[in-house]
Amino acid sequence: xxxxxxxxxxxxxxxxxxxxxxxxxxxxxxxxxxxxxxxxxxxxxxxxxxxxxxxxxxxxxxxxxxxxxxxxxxxxxxxxxxxxxxxxxxxxxxxxxxxxxxxxxxxxxxxxxxxxxxxxxxxxxxxxxxxxxxxxxxxxxxxxxxxxxxxxxxxxxxxxxxxxxxxxxxxxxxxxxxxxxxxxxxxxxxxxxxxxxxxxxxxxxxxxxxxxxxxxxxxxxxxxxxxxxxxxxxxxxxxxxxxxxxxxxxxxxxxxxxxxxxxxxxxxxxxxxxxxxxxxxxxxxxxxxxxxxxxxxxxxxxxxxxxxxxxxxxxxxxxxxxxxxxxxxxxxxxxxxxxxxxxxxxxxxxxxxxxxxxxxxxxxxxxxxxxxxxxxxxxxxxxxxxxxxxxxxxxxxxxxxxxxxxxxxxxxxxxxxxxxxxxxxxxxxxxxxxxxxxxxxxxxxxxxxx
Length: 450
Prior knowledge:
Blueprint: H1 2-25, H2 29-38, H3 42-55, H4 62-75, H5 79-92, H6 99-112, H7 116-129, H8 134-150, H9 154-167, H10 172-187, H11 191-201, H12 208-224, H13 228-241, H14 246-262, H15 266-279, H16 284-300, H17 304-317, H18 324-337, H19 341-352, H20 363-378, H21 382-391, H22 400-413, H23 417-430, H24 437-449
Helix pairs in contact: 2-3, 3-4, 4-5, 4-6, 5-6, 6-7, 7-8, 8-9, 8-10, 9-10, 10-11, 11-12, 12-13, 12-14, 13-14, 14-15, 14-16, 15-16, 16-17, 17-18, 18-19, 18-20, 19-20, 20-21, 21-22, 22-23, 23-24
């Protein structure tokens, strides 16, 4: 260890001596500073570039020193100073051959500072500066669009992607821009528009990743809209063509299995999913999704005992997983369809238990609560129904006034007038400025009299 430290110390001494010797002899300090930069001595290199500009402020190579000053700060993770130094390059040397790199460096600095709006504006401005140089401008507009996405401005992002598509249709960035536009439409819920964009790039040989992603998304979207034949074609194509791209292959095969089950090809779906579980290296979440879908295939076939066995097997193997509420919901369905309402109630209640304090219900927990209501109301156990809804009121994003009224109605049906009055007191207090305030006061008074 001592030898390492001694050698490193000697190296720094030699560097220092060499620097002084070069400065005295007038040898190319700029070239030497670049050598220091290339081997990772950014702090020393920074000093040399700064000294070079100080001694030669009018040098024709000043733009090179200024660029590397910004790069040194960037490599040392001092992104604020890096952004400032790249701006000096841009303003002081606007016609320098490396000024585009200065724009890029400034934008990347803002990215690393998580200032995505500034990064987007920087790249967008750079795209405008180099508008007539498509090979330079199109990457800038792509970076701008992606950074607009990072802070949630979909319209500005789309605007920049469309600039590429409309002005540089043959560029390398055009295909990715189309793909990104498709993703934006998908986020906006514009399924048909998204489909059109992904269809444009699903055969792009120049960018196989975008092609594979587009076909995968097309397959999932066709499943969603019920066009199973087209969905099957897209997913099979990904499975057949991208076996070496494990992420795409696994995702496509999973969704192909799901599609088969939805299309009533239960055995085919189970075979695909079982093969995926047994012969691929999957995350636990993907394994669980496969196993749930296998269980659902038996449920759809009305083989309730086998479905129940599949779902119970998942709970035994993965007792606490993110999809536990979905599994217990399906177990509840199995029991209910078999006519075992008590076991169904148990499973639906277990589904609801996987919500922490204040955590919002997922879709399966909402369904479980609805099922509890159906069973309790069918049994005329109104108080139980009301108690469960009241207990979980803070798990809903929806109109809490509606759910409180529902709770009060259930208590009234169960002749639990004291609890009904309490709920109307809450409604009176929480919604005192609402149009129903006098009705709530009236109902509270009636129930308190009883």
